[in-house]
Amino acid sequence: MSDTLPQGEEKVAAVRSMFDAIAPRYDLVNRIMTFGLDVRWRKRAVRTLGLPRRSRVLDIAAGTGDLCRELQRAGFVPIGVDLSFGMLAQARTAAPLVQGDALRLPMPDASVDGVTCGFALRNFVDLEAFFADLARVVRPGGRVALLDVAQPRHAVLRWGHGIYFGRVVPRIGGLLSDAAAYRYLPRSVAYLPSGERMTAMLRHAGFDAQHELLSVGITQLLSGTRR
């Protein structure tokens, strides 16, 4: 992937190609670079749904199926969708999986009880369009829990996180997977609006929304209930 952040359809193609390339070692690199915290964050997102057992939950950007497996362990019925066929080919889940675009979800109106999404908001071309399609597919009273990376608010923590995320993570990714892809990862945070702005966007789309920072601010969780 180029060192210049792509936009529009160029971004869609670049993101799909990148995840196809890193799919075989995606889970391994995630565990190493987060010290296993990514598992805790996914568990937190699933708990935040607060839905009854057997609820149907759509996992967007399902990748290799980490969140689908966590949803199944919690008693939900997950369906995974991802833009990258390479990621879906590496999936380790019994949940049904569909290749599709997050901005044009392959689901009928009001057809799911909940939605999860793990660390992919910055990869979507249009967050407002994404939130609007979430409102379309989630039934009234349904829940969403959306994870992504963040930057700590405390100056010292932000400095330390910047060094780790900007210098160490690309080296880990380069040694174990694709160097260009893991150079993109820290730079892609620039795509994300502020937590306040994303909360406002989700509310405008039709959700009662909340935003919180996890693990001293290195991860954020955006959640909401469909009005």
User: CATH homologous superfamily - what is it?
Assistant: Vaccinia Virus protein VP39
Mean pLDDT: 95
Span of the ends, CA to CA: 39 Å
> What's the CATH topology label?
Rossmann fold
Strand order of the largest sheet: 3-2-1-4-5-7-6
| CATH architecture type | 3-Layer(aba) Sandwich
The domain count comes to: 1
Strand content: 15-25%
Shape category: globular
The description of the largest β-sheet is: 7 strands, mixed
Provide the structure class.
alpha/beta
List the helices and strands in order: HHHEHEHEEHEHHHEE
> Can you count the helices?
9
Q: Helical percent range?
A: 40-55%
Supply the CATH class: Alpha Beta
Describe the structure.
This protein has nine helices and seven strands, in the order H-H-H-E-H-E-H-E-E-H-E-H-H-H-E-E. With 227 residues, the chain is of the alpha/beta class. The protein has one domain (8-226): Vaccinia Virus protein VP39 (Rossmann fold, 3-Layer(aba) Sandwich). A seven-stranded mixed β-sheet has the order 3-2-1-4-5-7-6, sandwiched between helices. Strand 2 (77-82), helix 5 (85-89) and strand 3 (97-99) form a beta-alpha-beta unit. Helix 6 (127-137) crosses helix 9 and helix 7 (155-176) packs antiparallel against helix 8. The termini are far apart. The model has no long low-confidence stretch (mean pLDDT 95).
